[in-house]
TrEMBL record, chains A, B:
UniProt keyword list: Aminoacyl-tRNA synthetase, ATP-binding, Cytoplasm, Ligase, Nucleotide-binding, Protein biosynthesis
Molecular functions (GO terms): ATP binding; proline-tRNA ligase activity
Domain Aminoacyl-transfer RNA synthetases class-II family profile per the UniProt entry, residue ranges: 58-284
Top EC class of this enzyme: ligase
Species: Candidatus Iainarchaeum sp
HAMAP family in the record: Pro_tRNA_synth_type3 (MF_01571)
Family from the record: Belongs to the class-II aminoacyl-tRNA synthetase family. ProS type 3 subfamily.
Protein name, entry field: Proline--tRNA ligase
Gene: proS
Documented EC number(s): 6.1.1.15
Swiss-Prot/TrEMBL GO biological process terms: prolyl-tRNA aminoacylation
Amino acid sequence: MNGEKLPSYDTNPGEWYTEIIQKAELADIRYGVKGALVFQPWSVECMEKMYDYFEADLKKRGHKNYWYPALIPESYFQKEAEHIKGFTPEVFWVERGGEEKLEERLALRPTSETAFYTMFAQWIRSYKDLPFRTYQRANVYRYETKATRPFLRSREFYWIETHCAFRTKEEAYQNVLEDMETTKRVVYGIFGIPTIVFERPAWDKFAGAGRTFGADAITPQGRVVQQPSTHMINQHFPKVFGVKYTDSDEKEKTPYTTCYGPAISRIMASVILTHGDNKGLKFPFEIAPKQIVIIPILAEKEPKVIDKAKELLETLEEKGYRIELDTTDKRPGEKFYFWEMKGVPLRIEIGPKDLKTKKFTMYRRDTEEKTTINENEIIENIEKQGKELSENLKKKAMKTFNGLIKDAKSIDEIKKIVGTGIARTNFCSVEKDGVNCAETIEKETGGKIRGTRIDIEDKLIDEGKCVVCGKKANHVVYIAKDY
Amino acid sequence: MNGEKLPSYDTNPGEWYTEIIQKAELADIRYGVKGALVFQPWSVECMEKMYDYFEADLKKRGHKNYWYPALIPESYFQKEAEHIKGFTPEVFWVERGGEEKLEERLALRPTSETAFYTMFAQWIRSYKDLPFRTYQRANVYRYETKATRPFLRSREFYWIETHCAFRTKEEAYQNVLEDMETTKRVVYGIFGIPTIVFERPAWDKFAGAGRTFGADAITPQGRVVQQPSTHMINQHFPKVFGVKYTDSDEKEKTPYTTCYGPAISRIMASVILTHGDNKGLKFPFEIAPKQIVIIPILAEKEPKVIDKAKELLETLEEKGYRIELDTTDKRPGEKFYFWEMKGVPLRIEIGPKDLKTKKFTMYRRDTEEKTTINENEIIENIEKQGKELSENLKKKAMKTFNGLIKDAKSIDEIKKIVGTGIARTNFCSVEKDGVNCAETIEKETGGKIRGTRIDIEDKLIDEGKCVVCGKKANHVVYIAKDY
């Protein structure tokens, strides 16, 4: 809350990110567990809204809401070899309750397939039970060995996980596509974060999945932030857990399953990074922790200004807006600076002369424009300017995003792009036999292959040779550094 | 979902409780961790609403929303001797991350004072920062040695915890009283569960607290279910954690703190137990997982019935109601029986002739009355009957509750009351010197002293002698068996 200047978002985004988290009181890293952090109201209010939008969308698609235990028996994990291999290096183990050693070690959930599938085996009996769509809002725990960074990578994070079962592979795949539509509707449509949907290469699949898809956002500085992933688990996993149903032909069959995992706390990182500027944060109107701040001007000379401000606060609160009235003893200029840094979309200024004219000044955080509005048209103005602000943030983000995607025809060209953008290039194979070329790219450029697009037919560049081995390219892939 | 009859709520409430949880699909106990359970959509939807009401009330009172890590370093715990003594027998310990032994054991939060206070020491600087009101919605973990029972006592449960700091003891006590008002407004006002607020005896305080207050609900069968507790932590705890502020007189002082803990999953047990009947569950309209079910009648003869039902479903969903349309191939009678058991407040029946008359039949779960309503007055009718149902459940619960409180003048009389009600009696002292008499009562009657009332001045019975030792009684106390 002090007056020190923020590092520049344009030229020093890394430090800007670290500083804004502290200055805007989004989260406090001074907690005694490495990689864990205390989320403060300014981020929690926003993330609660983000949960609401995701959950409403999933419910509309027929997902039902469960609460599963955070503790998962080790024996559940051990049923599926790839899964245990993928997750055990990252599991927090509970081995003791009070003074007693537990009979079986319990994993603090790193993900919940094993817990959900164990119950699916009890609940799913008939084809009439399918499709079976479930989700839970939960925290997950991973003993990260990589460097942690607030919101981007921490040892406890906040997500939603869906687990669904279907009669056919086609239906399951359809659900994967719908998951990606949810991502688009919510992450882009509401939060204003553009993404590309990739199918991940074979070497980058979720432990135990058949196919993995992921949406990638990219910061204006050119680093990828992974958004929700969705997985075709197929039949192997449900088989291991004994999930089966009697079909209409009386035969016993195994369903096809999928899962989808929007990590709310990581998407929050994209909200911070995508919409920020040199002044601080910006939030889309729908998810802003506070949507409006009222600043009384010269109230020490005209006490009625405060009465008016309070009256307006009440009116707008009743309408359901999230609103703040700043009555601290700071000067108006300081207050402006502070709430702009916090990213409040709209500011209403009320001074002594406004009491007579019944007009207020409204400031918009994105355009930095001030307009004069009539008191009796205030709701319409808030609605209009709030909507315009969100649309403007989206448009701006999309424009930046599109400018970050560049074609590359050689490893040198990839090297030039990676770090400031995402390179689009020809590649031999995203199956296992392409892994050597992928490793070369990572070693030479520092970028990772994000995958192939499933939303468009992506045409090969020029003669269509793999940028590494020169053999016939089968795919266009995208390469970037990630967080 | 099968057709077997429920055990009687009136004569066999224990079995009724176990069965209804399974039959109504509130929670599944077949999960592989003892004392943990999987909450299913029918309880989750209700508990989400319960969270909403509590959180809205707390926010209105100025509490801000935090998310703290679930893992608490052992060193935080060890700072306060009573607290560690009180909680360590119940702590789940994380000792390993992946293959590595952690440098310090981490407690899976059994409660979060130590985590909150550690951060308070960083955040609270000046008297201007006070009052400082915070809360989080979280899961807590306790390695219970007592027998667990779904919703009533489990090893993972769902709660809200508030942690607040004040300048004076009076302000802190005022906040305790406001917490109890929140309990009344939400637990009684919305959920329809009557409670009495007690100050707990000295031997029953929260580990580390100065004074402990608790609201007790009581089932129609006479067993207490503890509702939210609130604690005057006073200054000792903040001192231990170095929480201090500079007052307006420039002196450094220690704030007084309080905490309040509504356990949502346990309050849910009271909703089940208080409002149930021989047919199954009943929910207040505001927190019902589904508020209305639409049952099409004879749709096989008149397909337009389904169109009408769907049209109505959409209209009501748009209005924000939680609503179900049952298009399964069961007979209407079976559907009635099923949704009554599930506790849906209102049922709308639509048959072929209703399409012409534009009138529907509406059934109310509490009164079991059917009324005929005009299609164009459906919203008003839902609002009116929903409100009446909630009021009726409240009134009925309060009447039962009042009938359960009985005066007792001897240990024998207490013995007769305990188990079917709550005994009100004279008692020598709720300070440490009364503990022997309390133990006698518990041994002889199986009931526990719940405490003294703080909401009314409770007059001693007759000559005012302690029911156990015969010495001068200083208090009226209440005795009951609890869950």
